[in-house]
Amino acid sequence: HHAARKLLLPAFTKTAVARLEPGTRAYCHSLIDGFEGRDVVEAAEEYAQRVPEQVIGDLLGIPQGDRKLFRELIANINREEALDSRDEHVEQLSKMFVFLLAEIKEHVKNPREDLISYLLDVELRGRKLDPNHIISMMLLLFAAGIGTTTKAIGSSLWHLAGNPRDCERLVAEPELLPTALEEFLRAFTPVTMARLVKDDMHWRGVDMKADDWILLSFPAANRDPAQFDRADEVVIDREANRHAAFGLGIHRCLGSHLARMELRVALEVWLERIPDFSLEDASAVVWGGRLARGPVCLPLRFGRRSQPTPGGPQ
Prior knowledge:
Elements: H1 2-8, H2 14-33, E1 40-42, H3 43-48, H4 50-60, H5 67-78, H6 86-109, H7 115-121, E2 123-124, E3 127-128, H8 131-145, H9 147-162, H10 164-172, H11 177-187, E4 193-196, E5 201-203, E6 206-208, E7 213-216, H12 218-221, H13 256-273, E8 277-279, E9 286-288, E10 294-297, E11 299-302
Antiparallel strand pairs: 1-11, 2-3, 4-7, 5-6, 8-11, 9-10
Helix pairs in contact: 2-4, 2-13, 4-5, 4-8, 5-6, 6-8, 8-9, 9-13
């Protein structure tokens, strides 16, 4: 695990992530340009989901001509109902495998500056990576880097739509956003992870045996009143915020810098272009997710001061 993870580290440093920010910002503006003339948008599908898909596509170097198919394949393997049928899930993964294998073959012919070409060039224990290994790495990135960030963006927009004071403050004090997004990550942590018990143990009246599966609830840890003052409140200027949204220890999220950049830019652009918005219908908001939890349906209405027009700042 350590050696395989180490191979990916250069692609997720702060410096590497910074190179993706201008394209991410421009794409967020283009999405909002597309809202022109509308009063209501389904923000989970039309904004929160689209941003991570685009960023991962840029990271991998998926050609623009293949992006529509790429988004469709991502949507199919991430569908909630697809997980109910193993055969259907395997079928969708197989289609993605074929797509990624074709991308790898194209990158072999025409190397470029992206993650696929990088993985084709590195060695693990003195050997080049097998295409199956590269595809497995990419599938892991899809699972870890798209649904999770989608839900984090959606949860943040949901909170701001329902809490106009926080929204107004962030519009007036944009420098507060980095602190606020850490609070959103704490309060609306999208991920819960499973781990294996290493040794037999007894803890708080429960016997656990070696190799038992246990569920580590990062969201519950982030609401622990022993660790956080006003733990169940969203405090956008919270200064002491040692949350566990990205996990802890050797399995801490490899892409935390990337996720933070996407969340920050998505919120910066939204608040810049749409400073006044609200929930169209609070009862219509649907929360869901198995690998990651957050809004899967989020209808938002623009206020009088927020009428998106094309040609926003790039």
